[in-house]
Amino acid sequence: MINYELSKEQKLLQDSVYESSRSMDISLPFLNRWKYMANTGIIGTCINRAYGGSDLGAFEMLLALEAMAKGNTDNGLSFAIAAHTLACVIPIYQYGTEKQKQKFLPQLISGDLIAANAMTESESGSDAFNLQTKAVKNGSNYLLNGTKTFVSNNEPSGLALTYAATNSDKGFFGGITCFLVERENYSTGSPFKKMGLESCSLGEIYFNNTELTSDNILGEVGGGGPIFNHSMEWERICLAGIHIGAMERILAKTIEFTKQRKSQGQSIAKFQSISHALAEMQVLLEVSKSYSYKVAWMLDRKQNVSKESAITKLFVSNSVKKFMLQAMQIFGGYGYISEYGIEQEVRDALASSLYSGTSEIQKNIIASNLGI
Q1: In this prediction, what percent of the chain has a pLDDT beyond 90?
Q2: How do residues 159-180 score in pLDDT, each as one tens digit?
Q3: Nearest to 365 by CA among 232, 244, 260, 196
Q4: Catalytic residue among 60, 121, 204, 235
Q5: Rounded distance, CA 269 to CA 42, Å?
């Protein structure tokens, strides 16, 4: 039976991250804010203490990300840290050699090194089954060539977890290898201009005859597919935390607005159309939180969460978009102008059904688990 009542330690973790995030000066440069949040220990939540972590689990990771997003208004920073942690730090910890873990994890956890997950290509998006980036055997080494796009943290990254085809005949399972590529071995394009999550750099990474040794291989040759799939399960589940935290923050802000905003001599919170809208927002938040907590609990117990992680991603993505649009509707004209911050929340939320696999991909995964 799942117990959702948080322990004293879990509450302390949430409170600590929340207070630190809330007190962060968002006017500071991105790298300063990154380092500030890294000092809370959030990146190392699930990593063994030997490498600078806290040796907790996915459930605590979800709680920490929720607290971070609840405490600060920069959803781009929250997403950037989550992508770094879930798609890069966790795979290195779970699949890396002791040498790789000793080399990279302390820097990744402390905030001194930022990592990027390089999978998507212009002709290989959410499906990830048609990689054109190749790593060709060159004696005992490999030569890596190709371009990755829509890479979060591309510009500030010093390490790229790069998925490349090493045997195209074997396809996704058996034909793809994950390489740890340091910054001196790749170049980056200028960050894309985008409608939301503005502080999170998003762009391309280029590899041109990059020579790699066996020390650069994460896991084993041909083992990149399972590594990527497992990292996406972590991301789809725990990334829900930043959406839940943002919804908690905006719900409180919206309730306060409705109490202060007057119409016909009374606060608009008294009108049924407004109170019902707030009730719907509460439902979206609570169901998102409840199901995400359940699936993080399952992940910690090494249960198969292929279907459940996809359900989490699909439901929470849809929920945060509906939620923020509802908040805008309640704020009315004030929600459309930048001063109140609601229009920014809407723009940030719209990306939720695109990254970590589009909503359509999540439906494919769910359907396949139903035997369809």
Answers
A1: 93
A2: 999 999 999 888 888 999 999 9
A3: 232
A4: 235
A5: 36
